[in-house]
Design goal:
homodimer; 392 residues; alpha+beta; six-stranded mixed sheet; 10 helices; 15 strands; 30% helix; globular; amino-acid biosynthesis (chains A, B); L-glutamate N-acetyltransferase activity, acting on acetyl-L-ornithine as donor (chains A, B); Arg_biosynth_ArgJ (chains A, B)
Amino acid sequence: MTAPAPRTGVCAPEGFRAAGVTAGLKASGTPDVALVVNTGPDFSAAGVLTGNRVTAAPVRWCRAVLPAGRLAAVVLNSGGANACTGAAGYADTVATAERVAGLVGVAPDEVAVASTGLIGERLPMAALLAGCDAAAAALSPDGGAAAARAIMTTDTVPKTASVTENGWTVGGMAKGAGMLAPGLATMLVVLTTDAVADAAVLDSALRAATRVTFDRIDSDGATSTNDTVLLLSSGASGVRPDPVALTAVVTRVCTDLAGQLIADAEGATKEIEIEVVHAVTEDDAVTVGRAVARNNLVKTAFFGQDPNWGRILAAVGTVDASVAFDPDQVDVAVNGVWICRGGATGDDRSAVDLTPRRAHVVIDLHAGTETATVRTNDLSHAYVHENSAYST
Amino acid sequence: MTAPAPRTGVCAPEGFRAAGVTAGLKASGTPDVALVVNTGPDFSAAGVLTGNRVTAAPVRWCRAVLPAGRLAAVVLNSGGANACTGAAGYADTVATAERVAGLVGVAPDEVAVASTGLIGERLPMAALLAGCDAAAAALSPDGGAAAARAIMTTDTVPKTASVTENGWTVGGMAKGAGMLAPGLATMLVVLTTDAVADAAVLDSALRAATRVTFDRIDSDGATSTNDTVLLLSSGASGVRPDPVALTAVVTRVCTDLAGQLIADAEGATKEIEIEVVHAVTEDDAVTVGRAVARNNLVKTAFFGQDPNWGRILAAVGTVDASVAFDPDQVDVAVNGVWICRGGATGDDRSAVDLTPRRAHVVIDLHAGTETATVRTNDLSHAYVHENSAYST
């Protein structure tokens, strides 16, 4: 007898079983169907879906079932996004939910569906449904790790996290290569907790957490059609935490997972943290940080280990007039050296060491008191290679 | 005696002299100072400047002198952008205008200044002012080609154009590598005409022309701190064209120059024309076209000669709700093949030939009657190389 695997990721809290199996959706032959089942006693749930106006069939399904605030299971597949597949694709998603509902013994609208992979192609339904059967048969309280592996696409490592506090736990798994992978850019996240919490409390906690974590990682600005973040509560701990405490712990888990996404971003040689300080509003700080994070000239400069503050300032200048700041007051520091002061040349740029993988940029707008940090990657040859050679 | 060079570019119209000289601003030792002088009898002028909130010293100078609607000369330098150089940098621009004013015998505020090169470094003023002297001495009605060469940075070819109609001519020169070059991304354009036109007429003609030409080429969305487009009239033809006719001819010259910019975009292997049709408003069409033009996943797909309509649709979906369209109604054609119909798989993608340098995308929103075309390039290994290896 071997020791049972530790209960990780979505299985870290009590009241959840999971599985990851290989249904043959991916040419690579690696696991591609994951199932997460809430064994209760509670089944409250919340979710945040992509802001892209072009939404995949599973996202449309989740949008339809989430308002009820109740989920008993989540079935996820890699190997196909089921996006831009029309009514037939939506029917495939419904059939998947119905299959899992029958296997788990719940109603179809208690089953969320998430998919990731190439856009524009139907899923091989026979294989997927057989995969659902296999996953249901493999469900285990120790299945968290297998489920995290089954949702990987271009990820190089599975991503799980959990935080336990005062008798209750929040766990989770994530996939996605920081938006650096083409049709595979999708970020899928399933969070679980055994805390007792109503759907409304879960919803506000999840929105507060995603706003400062997943919403602030931006590798290439290419929002996916399939992004899905779900939070399920089993209430199995019997503990009903203060909503503030719940939000704090959910945020900690999301921060951990978001960091793992950026760290695993495809083709990246740098993890860049862009901290915007002294903005009038937090939204202003995010807007400026995002403008810099998405600027190809800034991103290529970091790939070249060039502390090119001029490109950073030029990127800051592209934000519209609603963001208050005086270009002649802006300071920029790269890895601790203030190479731009008052919108002009500052300290000696040769003092900047950009050899480490992690880079830290501080942009001081000198306009207010608010701060926000946006995390991104550099733009490398590997990014171009993986996104152009990627075969459809 | 050799035959005189043809009067090209800014010297195509009557009433202009130009020169291009080597002042030693560029390590390459290639020509780097250009001078364009209007010999009258009229001196009306108009200009359009960068929308970036971080503006270079010469842009601030032009913003100050353009409202008078009168220019007698334009001095341009490559080898340094004079951006983010503070008050000292602005003083350098003023000194340059004053030097040229003295040489040409006009007032400093009748001299526009434009610079392009690295951001954040002072210009070597002794060399630049000596270059102004040399350029003034070299002024000639045959200097249009030399001036066009002197403003080149990463451009591989000088860019000039002219159109003659009913006794009057519009000419021009441009530099810029379609925003694909880092600190050197700046687009500088000087247009000249011997048509008789008031400054207000020139201004409206220039704004109408740039709106549908230079404003619709977008290689990487990285707006420069130095972008400058000027239009000077000598009135030497004695012909006062109808404003509509003037606008049409200025637009033709701008279209020609904009096409040359995209064709010479650094690192590009594809020239991509994104035509958005059946939008509710022309602005909507431009917004959608620009979202696709700036999407790195779309741009890398074209580099990989992959007709990935899913990435195009996902990019369209990133525009905000102010742009009216139904994702399930969108059709996408690449090089004549409608590979996406009704937001889903359309005709056989294998019929798409992406081997030619020119690619044509049509996005049919089925929402209205308006159309716009945005032109861009692919995202290639050479782009990453040239923008990361670029030494500051």
